[in-house]
């Protein structure tokens, strides 16, 4: 009888332990699940056109339980969304504008993610005879001097800002120049227009390589330090915009600079193009890039 009573006590104790253990696990699981599952990512057309986000976002969603709505626009438009609280996190490549965005309190925790470079492409006939130039500024001067058709995005994107800065440094006034045409389109579409019209354009290497087989454009100028193209991830301020999904933004930012993601970025594009479309930079200093 005593043995039976002891057995009952032991069974009751085990059941109580199991109940507490699984009950606690349920509580912890509930805490781990994100309350607000949707994240709005405002990013550049280059991260979309290259297919990088098509690779990374499913991994992030499976790993965290969040769902990402990607809005691929120029860096300028992405930051404009952040200034209105219409995005939770940004992945952009316009360093000066990014610094201003953070300084004005619209975003924080700006982290270096990766880089590639800009290149100047054009038709194989190369009417301006710029192929092989080492200086981006000399290239711009020569295109202007020969009045060779140049297609510009004209959309305040990171690429557009970089291009306009090059024209300015080269001392070229673009006002009223018929050879200079703005498309108002993203990078992929602008490359298509340049190919169709047999003109020159400035593009990030990744988007060009991803679309190269559909284009009648060659790489003509590359390798100048002026053409470095750097990407950062920025969390939008939930202090300024309480509706911002701050935990989701942090989770995405942490994911982009994580070792696993950086390894994926390191090899992305190698199998298809023979070289990566981006170079991982988390934890590095901007001044050390491209060396």
Please tell me about this protein's structure.
By secondary structure, this protein is α/β, with parallel strands linked by helices. It has two domains: 38-115 and 230-288, Periplasmic binding protein-like II (D-Maltodextrin-Binding Protein, domain 2); 117-227, D-Maltodextrin-Binding Protein, domain 2 (3-Layer(aba) Sandwich), CATH 3.40.190.10. Helices cover 45% and strands 20% of the residues. The chain has twelve helices and ten strands. The protein is globular and about 60 Å long.
Could you give a quick summary of the protein structure above?
This protein has 291 residues and is α/β, with parallel strands linked by helices. 45% of the residues lie in helices and 20% in strands.
CATH class of the largest domain: Alpha Beta
| Beta-strand proportion | 15-25%
Instruction: Determine the number of helices (DSSP H or I, runs of at least 4 residues).
Output: 12
Q: Give the biggest sheet.
A: 8 strands, mixed
Distance between the termini: 82 Å
Provide the CATH architecture of the largest domain: 3-Layer(aba) Sandwich
CATH superfamily of the largest domain: Periplasmic binding protein-like II
Low-confidence stretches: 1-6, 8-12, 14-31
What structural category characterises the helix and strand content? alpha/beta
Kindly report the oligomeric state of this protein.
Answer: single chain
CATH T-level fold name of the largest domain = D-Maltodextrin-Binding Protein, domain 2
Shape: globular
């Amino acid at each position: 009888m005593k043995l039976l009573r002891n057995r009952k006590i032991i069974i009751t104790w085990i059941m109580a332990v199991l109940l507490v253990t699984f009950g606690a696990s349920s509580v912890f699981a509930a805490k781990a699940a994100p309350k607000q599952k949707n994240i709005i990512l405002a990013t550049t057309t280059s991260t979309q056109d290259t297919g990088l986000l098509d690779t990374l976002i499913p991994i992030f969603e499976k790993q965290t339980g969040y769902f990402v709505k990607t809005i691929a626009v120029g860096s300028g438009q992405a930051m404009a969304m952040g200034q209105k609280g219409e995005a939770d996190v940004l992945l952009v490549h316009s360093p000066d504008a990014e610094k201003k965005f953070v300084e004005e309190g619209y975003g924080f925790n700006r982290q270096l993610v990766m880089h590639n470079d800009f290149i100047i492409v054009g038709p194989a006939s190369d009417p301006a005879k710029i192929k092989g130039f080492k200086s981006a500024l000399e290239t711009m001067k020569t295109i202007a001097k020969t009045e060779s058709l140049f297609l510009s995005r004209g959309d305040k994107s990171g690429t557009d800002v970089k291009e306009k800065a090059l024209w300015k440094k080269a001392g070229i006034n673009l006002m009223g120049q018929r050879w200079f045409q703005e498309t108002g389109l993203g990078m992929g579409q602008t490359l298509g227009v340049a190919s169709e019209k047999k003109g020159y354009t400035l593009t990030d290497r990744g988007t060009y390589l991803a679309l190269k087989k559909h284009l009648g454009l060659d790489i003509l100028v590359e390798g100048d330090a002026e053409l470095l193209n750097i990407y950062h991830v920025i969390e939008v301020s939930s202090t300024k915009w309480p509706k911002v999904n701050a935990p989701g933004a942090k989770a995405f930012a942490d994911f982009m600079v994580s070792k696993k993601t950086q390894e994926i970025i390191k090899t992305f594009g190698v199998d298809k193009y023979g070289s990566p479309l981006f170079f991982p930079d988390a934890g590095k200093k901007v001044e050390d890039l491209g060396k």
